[in-house]
Each structure stands twice: as C-alpha cells, then as structure tokens.
Automatic annotation (TrEMBL):
Keyword annotations: Isomerase
Keyword Isomerase tagged: yes
Keyword Ion transport: no
Record-linked SUPFAM superfamilies: Six-hairpin glycosidases, SpoIIaa-like
Sample GO molecular function, one term: isomerase activity
Family stated for the protein in its record: Belongs to the N-acylglucosamine 2-epimerase family.
Species in which this protein is naturally found: Roseospira marina
Protein name: N-acyl-D-glucosamine 2-epimerase
GO biological process: one example: carbohydrate metabolic process
Pfam families (alphabetical): GlcNAc_2-epim (PF07221)
Length: 711
C-alpha cells in the first residue's frame, strides 16, 4: 500500500486564524476551509508580494506580528510525517504576504497593474528591438527566458499581433509614446508582410508566418504549420491576427485597420460560418478551396470548437465595438454568446462545458489530445466574457451560465490547497474518484490564471457577490506572487503546482508559438479597469492619439471595456496637456476638434458609485462634524486623512463622526484614528454617532472603545 512516509516540500495558501507564540506556530484555513498548523523556524523568511521592477519586499522581522486572523498568506515549507500519533507536521521556510496590513492586497493599489504593464512593455520592446529604432524585421517569435532572441528567422502572425495588442494596451494606460510606436509599426508590418487581400472576394486572410532567410528574402507560410492545425487555415489564427491591429485602432482610428477587420469578418461570415440550420463557425478551412468540409482537413474536417465561436469576442470583436459602437458588431457578439449558451453547457455529464463538436453539434470526444478533457481556462473565459456581454445586452441566460461556471469550477479546476488554476483535466470522474485526473501534469499556465482573475473580478464588479471577490483575490495573489519573473522581466509560461517556475522545453521562454505579449498585458489592462472602476471606485486616465480624419464623425469612444451602463463617466479631458470640454460625460465620447492634426488625448474616467467618503460638514468652535459614507477599506485612508487634515487645519480639537451611512470599517482605519488621536494629544476627542452595529462591533473588538467614544 502506498503511504506518505517521507519528507517533501509544498505550498499552503490560506487565511490565518491564530498565532501561538508559545509554540511559534500559526493556524491557517485554506480556501476550502481545511485547517493546518504551520510551524516557524529560526530560518523562516517572509516577504510581501512585489511587482515587476521592484526589489525584495522584506517582511521577515515583522512576520510574527503580521500573522493576525483573516490575513491571506502563502507558506512554502516541508512536511514531516513523524508527528505525534502519526500526524504530519509542517514547517514553513518562506512566507509571502498579500499586503503590509491584514486587509490590504497590494495588487488592489490603483497603480499596481499600470506599473506592471509598463514593465511588460519595456521588457518586450527591449527584447525585440533594443533601445534603437523599432524595426519589425528584427522581431522573432522565439525568445529565451531572459528575453534573448533565438536563431530561428520565423515570424508568426498571431504572436506578432498579440504583442502589438500588448503595446497598444500599455499605451492606453501609460501614454508612453514608444509603446504606441511599437504598436503602429507592428500593424504596418503585419499588413505589408503577412496579409493576403482578395479584392475580388472583398476578404482578407492572414498568413500563418513568414520565414526570414539568411539572404534577406522572405518565405511565406500560408497554411498553419502548428501540429494541431497542420496544412489548414484555423479560425483562431485568423481571429488573433486582428487582436493587435484592432486594439491599436481604438487609439488611432486608422481607417486601414478598420477595413482589414471588416474584410476579415467577411472571411469569417462567408467561409467559416455554417449557414445551414446548425449555425456556428467551423474551426478550420482548406487553404486552397476555403472549404470546411474538404477531405484533406482530416480530423479537423467539418468541426466546430470553443476557439472558432468564443474567441472572436475577447480577441478583437469587443474592442471593435468599443471603438465604433456599430450595431453589426454588437449583433455578431450576441450571435456568438447565444451559440455558447445553447451549445456548450453539459452539466448533466460534467462539471465543465463541452468544447469540441461535429458539424451537427454532436460531441466530439475523440479529437487529438483533447479527447473528453476540459481546458479549465476556457470555462473561466466563457464566464468572464458572458459578464462583459451582459453589460451590452442583458440576458438571463448570460448571467445564469456565468454564475454556474463561477460556482462550479473552484471545486473542479482550482487548486484550493496552494492557489491558482489548473490546465487540462479529464471532464468526467471515474467511479470512486474525487479528483479530476490531469491530462499531463498539475502545472499552471499563465494564461489560465488570467481568465480566472478577470472572470471573478468582473463577476464581483457587476454582481457584488463577496465570494467572487475572494476568488479574484486568491487568484491575483497566486499570479503576482509566483508568475512574475522579477529577476529577468516578463512572466513565466508555467509554474509547478507549488508556484516554483517551470523552465523546460517550449515552456521555458518568454516568446513562442503559444506565448507572446498578450495574456499578461490583457490581464494588467483589464484587471486595472475592473479593480479601479468597478470595485475600488478609483478614477483612471486613458490615452489616445487619433489620426486626422480617422474616427467616423470625429467621435472618439473611450469606454475601456464593456462596463455596466452608467458605471463611469468622463470628468476631465486634456488635448496635448490643455483642458478640453467638448465631451459627453455619460456617453463616454469625446468630440475631436475639427481639422485636428497630430494630437494626444488624455481622458479621465471616474466611477459614479462611491465606495467611501468622508465629508467635513462643519467646524463649530473646536469640534468638527464629519459624515462617513460607504465601506472604509485600507485604500480609503487617504480620504479619511483629507477630512482629518481639513478639520484640524480649521482648529478642530474634537471630531464627531456621523456613522449612519458607514457600513463597515477596517482595522487599518481604526488604527489610523487612534494613532491620530495619540499624535494630537490627550485632550483630542473622537466620537462616532448613529453607528451601525457592525462598526460598533469592530471598534469594541479592537478594544478601541476607550479611544473612540460610541454614542
């Protein structure tokens, strides 16, 4: 019989329940409420999650004091199977905290993801082009783990387009002109070298790749040479060829990009779409006849799959609608999401959606490597994009499927012991099994973490369900703690189940057929949007460089993603650094100056909801009255501090808070008030009236009711 009678290292993630100084150990519960006792040693060291471009964020000297109830922490250490009565002991060697205080998560800081996308942009610009001129003849698909180019002269369309997407997204958040230069030059190169225009058919399709020869000539690679799609034109390659150009179009309004997108959509609707009663889109077509039923397609003949239906929306179609507001693109989105809701659920048989199909939508469970297996990230991607679509066209079916996935997948595709999302698993449990078997391994890929983080961020942002925020935070903590290559830059393709980087074979590099500057940039861009605008209610700035005469009717649409109607409004616009007032705040549009030349537009979007406010009502004598509203979190201390500074500057020596609209207060907020009272002197008084029970309990629970009078 197999038994665990040896030592081994592993990771535990969860929430602290108590610290015992007598035994120098702490108790922890995992995401699924399993309890551990974790010992500390003389050599245990600790840190706080650090971002790309940051140094080691040491917390070793403070770690025992930081082990307070409710705090999320990763503990990497050693299991010893020699405890009392056959128990297994665990000693932590390395702790990683999600923030400096018990309720703080560093990746919820307003600028966290913006700093991350800036670092990603710099890494890929330097890796591909150095610090000189940006020339895409120097671009290579294959990059080593440190960002060095490999010898192959191959340039793949999709990886280049996805990198262009990354540069464009980085410009949208930072306004760094070098990123936009890299995006625009990438679009020009794609159009000149990797695009096939069939003017007679009014279609565009895209080459798989181009090989740069040693003598400077080019060898076009038309049909795919990737193993799953060999000698075919896979739909997803045509889809992702548009990802970078369309994201760039949102910034510039370049009409040539719009025309390429229109013609590529013509290709989809004329040759990939099933115009018969079954509907949907075929996954592959023959490169010569453009026929999805051609015998030479082999196992890809007359097939439909997740990529051919679901990838349109996130790759380019949502962004094309955001840039234009045109109804045909909204209709296309609705068609794809209706198809997903109708065809993909299979919950009578599996906890996962069905992803591959025959012509008539019967299940294809014998195809290639997939067989009857689930890609965890595809399920999460469906939930994420359904919630985006819900804000464009509300349908009960969209929310129902998104929530079914959100509530089902954590128990089937998430690592509730260590954190993070798994890769490919068997869709069905055999008799007696509790855990879905892994197709190959229990490693975790960077792109699947993105899908999980974005899915739960937008689910919480729209539906306000607390569990969804918890899953978003757990996923973002794992990603930021273990996927960021803080030494060399960029992110790792895969990590082991315990978070250690996996650096072998094709999964070793930072650029390959499967990896480019896409998912990591997309995560940084949209995590910033969802966290700031939907969850933390923080304003954000976005940058545009509209071409003269580019956008139709001179209207620049600046909505950063499909957000719930009325969630944000424009509060400020600057053109070339000067304030500009010709905008529609609610419609999220800017009317560009007539006959404008090369201009740079900066737009500030502000959430309409208020998470927390502290308003000084009056200062009478030496007493200031301050109204508190909403939920006070660690991120809101700046607003409380502003009110405190305003009141004391007017001579206040006592604060009376009206707490009738304050629903909760964090420990950091209480400590702030007590600290300020201490610094102001013994005669300074703090009083809170009309207090909610939860707030009163928090004050008493922290033993601060002697310092903060509850009226």
């Amino acid at each position: 019989m197999n038994s665990v009678d040896f030592t081994f290292s592993d990771l535990i993630a969860g929430y602290v329940t108590a610290y015992d100084s007598d035994t120098d150990s702490f108790s922890l519960k995992t995401s699924d409420d399993r309890a551990y006792t974790i010992g500390l040693t003389d050599n245990t060291f600790a840190e706080v999650i650090r971002n790309l471009g940051e140094g080691f964020n040491n917390a070793t000297d403070q770690m025992r004091g930081m082990l307070v109830p409710g705090r999320f922490v990763f503990a990497y250490g050693v299991f010893y199977p020699d405890g009392p009565n056959g128990t297994v002991l665990f000693d932590a060697k390395h702790l990683v905290f999600a923030g400096r205080t018990e309720n703080a998560y560093v990746f919820e800081q307003p600028a966290w993801w913006i700093r991350q996308i800036e670092q990603l942009g710099r890494f890929y610009v330097e890796s591909e082009f150095g610090d000189g001129e940006i020339d895409y003849r120097d671009y290579r698909t294959q990059l080593t783990i440190t960002g060095q180019k490999q010898k192959s002269g191959r340039q793949e369309t999709d990886t280049m387009s996805r990198l262009v997407y990354g540069f464009a997204s980085a410009f949208l958040l930072t306004g760094n002109d070098r990123f936009l230069e890299a995006a625009e030059k990438g679009v020009e190169y794609l159009r000149a070298h990797l695009r096939f225009v069939d003017a007679g058919e009014d279609i565009v399709y895209w080459y798989h790749a181009v090989d740069l020869q040693d003598d400077g000539t080019e060898q076009k690679v038309f049909a795919s040479e990737f193993g799953d799609d060999y000698d075919a034109l896979p739909c997803y390659e045509q889809i992702y060829a548009l990802a970078g150009p369309v994201q760039t179009y949102r910034i510039t309004g370049d009409p040539d990009i719009y025309d390429d997108a229109r013609r590529t959509i013509n290709l989809f609707n004329r040759f990939y779409k099933d115009h018969g009663p079954n509907g949907g889109y075929y996954s592959h077509i023959d490169p010569v006849t453009l026929d999805p039923h051609a015998e030479c397609l082999g196992h890809n003949r007359a097939r439909k799959n997740w990529n051919s239906v679901g990838d349109h929306a996130p790759a380019y179609l949502i962004n094309l609608w955001l840039a234009t507001g045109e109804q045909p693109f909204a209709d296309f989105l609705e068609y794809t999401f209706d198809t997903i809701c109708e065809r993909f659920p299979d919950y009578d048989n599996s906890a996962f959606v069905q992803e591959k199909f025959h012509d008539d939508w019967s299940k294809d469970q014998t195809w290639g490597w997939q067989q009857n297996r689930a890609v965890v990230g595809h399920n999460l991607k469906i939930a994420w994009n359904l919630m985006r679509m819900q804000s464009l066209k509300r349908k009960d079916t969209y929310v129902a499927l998104a929530e079914t996935i959100a509530q089902t997948i954590p128990d089937h595709g998430c690592d509730r012991q260590r954190g993070g999302w798994y890769d490919v698993v068997e869709r069905v449990l055999d008799p007696g099994q509790r855990f879905h078997r892994f197709a190959w391994h229990d490693r975790k890929a960077w792109w699947q973490q993105e899908q999980g983080i974005l899915a739960y961020l937008i689910l919480h942002g729209v539906l306000k369900t607390d569990d969804y925020l918890r899953f978003a935070r757990e996923g973002a903590a794992f990603y930021n703690a273990f996927f960021l290559d803080v030494e060399s830059g960029g992110v790792y393709f895969n990590v082991l189940a315990n978070g250690e980087p996996y650096a072998l074979g094709t999964e070793r590099g930072k650029g390959s057929h499967s990896m480019a500057g896409y998912h990591s940039f997309e995560l940084a861009y949209l995590a910033s949007v969802y966290t700031n605008l939907l969850i933390r209610q923080e304003p954000m700035d976005f940058y545009f460089r509209p071409r003269p005469g580019g956008f139709k009717d001179g209207i620049l649409r600046v909505q950063p993603d499909i957000l719930p109607e009325g969630a944000v409004r424009i509060t400020d616009v600057w053109i070339d650094g000067h304030e500009y007032d010709d905008f529609d705040a609610e419609a999220l549009t800017v009317t560009l100056p007539e006959g404008h030349g090369a201009i740079k537009v900066r737009v500030r979007l502000t959430p309409t909801a208020v998470r927390f406010s502290a308003d000084v009502l009056d200062v009478s004598g030496t007493t200031a009255r301050i109204a508190l509203n909403g939920t006070l979190t660690p991120h809101d201390l700046k607003y409380l501090d502003e009110a405190f500074q305003t009141a004391t500057a007017e001579g206040a020596r006592a604060l009376t808070f009206d707490g009738r609209e304050l629903s909760s207060i964090c420990s950091e907020g209480l400590r702030y008030l007590v600290f300020r009272k201490q610094k102001a002197g013994p005669d300074f008084k703090i009083r809170i009236e009309n207090v909610q029970p939860a707030v009163a309990d928090a004050i008493r629970g922290a033993a601060f009711d002697q310092e903060i009078t509850i009226a």
